Each structure stands twice: as structure tokens, then as C-alpha cells.
Amino acid sequence: MKRSLIVFLALCCGPLALLAASTAIAHTVRHPSKLTFHLHENGADPDSFTGRVSSDNLKCEADRTVEVYRRLGPNGPDPEHDPLLGTTQTDADGHYEVVLEDEVVKGGEYYGIATRKVLRNDGEHSHVCRIAGAGLIVFVPPG
Which CATH number is 52's domain given? Predict the structure, then answer.
């Protein structure tokens, strides 16, 4: 009797235990990132924005897309409506430079965004680098 009870419990509860264990193992890891953002007036050469993406995961620093915008609206940064001035990828150490070939930096407010990066997504495991935004740079031209 004791033996048949153990076999019965193993057959009934074993699959439930495996299902619970696999659900507990599935997860999403979101790595925070930071973005630094600097304006360089380069005289006769095109102006540029430079900086670095940093994170607790080195894979979140390399090959990140960085976008530079000029803020137009009164309600803060709005990448859906603000003009995109340039985009680039970070190097292996997270450094980037966006050179404004066709535009001179005018008086106004500028900001940068390091877009979300998916490191792994296989249905059960998801590892992502979170979006990182840099604060506004307010540029007042001399004169």
C-alpha cells in the first residue's frame, strides 16, 4: 500500500513539480544603463556630440545605438516628434561620437538616447539593456 501511494504521488505530482520549476527558472533580466552627453563646437569642422554608455553588463556598452535629438516642444524630450540629428553605434568600450555634418548647432536644447538592446530572448529567458537618456544640453550661441 505504501509503495503504491508513492508511485501514485510521483505520477500525479511529478509533472506539476517540473512545470513549477521551469516557470521559476524562466526570467527577464533588465540591465540599467547610463549615457553621458557632451557638445563639442569644433570651429571650422562640423560640431559633434560625444559620450559614453555605461552599464553593469559590459555587453550593454558595446554596439549600442545612440540617437541625438533637438528638443522642440515645451513638454520635455519627445523622440517621436523632435528632429533626429544623427545616430551612431558605440565602440567596444561604450564611447560614441555623432558628427553633425549637415547642421550647425544652433541655440536650443539637445538630448541623447541609447536605445534598448536585446542580449538574449529565447522565449524563456530575456536579457535586455534598458534605454538610457541623457539630460538636456541647453546651448546658447555666443553674441
Answer: 2.60.40
